[in-house]
Design a protein that fits this description.
Elements: H1 2-25, H2 32-39, H3 43-49, H4 53-70, H5 82-99, H6 101-112, H7 119-143, H8 151-167, H9 169-176, H10 183-201
Amino acid sequence: MKRQARRQNLESAILAVAQERFALHGYGGVSVDDIAADAGISKQSLLYYFPSKKALYSRVFNDVLDSWLSNLNSLADADLDPHAALERYVTQKLQFSYDHPSGSRLFAQEIISQAPQCADDIEAKLVPAFRAEAAVLNRWMANGDVAPLPVPHLLFTLWAMTQTYADFAWQMRMLLGKQALEPADFDLARETILRMLEGALGLKRPATSAVVTSGHAALPPVEKAGKERA
C-alpha cells in the first residue's frame, strides 16, 4: 500500500508539473527533460510512468478535459429551474477557472492551435456534451421558459465569459493593477454574467436567490489562491 501511494503521489506530481509547463509553453516548447527536472526525478523515472511526451501530454490534456466537462452537466438537472441551472452552470465554470487556471490555459492553447495533439479526444467527448446542453436550452426556449436566442452562440459566449478569467488572467491583473485575481473578482464576474443572462433570456431572479454549487464554495476562499492562480 505504501508503494502504491508513493507511485500515485509521484504520478500526480509529474502531471501537475507537466500541466503547468504545457500551459505556459505549449506542446512543442516543453521537453521530457524539463518536466523531469521540475518534478525532481530522472528522465528515466518519468518515462517509466509515461513512455513518451505524447503519452504524458495526452494524459494531462484528457484529465483537464474530463474535469472541464464534469462542470457542464448543470443544465441537464431536471430538479432545477432555468435560472437556478444557469446560475450553477456559471458558478461552476468560474470555479474551474479559479481552481484550474493552468488547465484552462492548456485547453485553450490546444484549441487555438486547431487541436494538433488531441482532436479525436475533444470531438469524442465535447460534441456529446455540447449537444446535451443545447438540447436543454432548446427545450426551455420551445416551452417559453426563456427568450429565444441562437443556442450554439449562447453557449460559446458563456464559455468565453467564464474561461477568460483563467486564460487572460495576466491581462486582467495588469488592467486592474493587481498581483492576482481575488475571490471578489470572481464574485463580481458571476454577478455580471448572471445579470446579462437574465436580461438576454428574460429570466426573473428569485427573491431569495442562492447560488447552487454542488459542493463548491459559493466564493472561492481566499486561502486557496496560490501559485497556480498567479
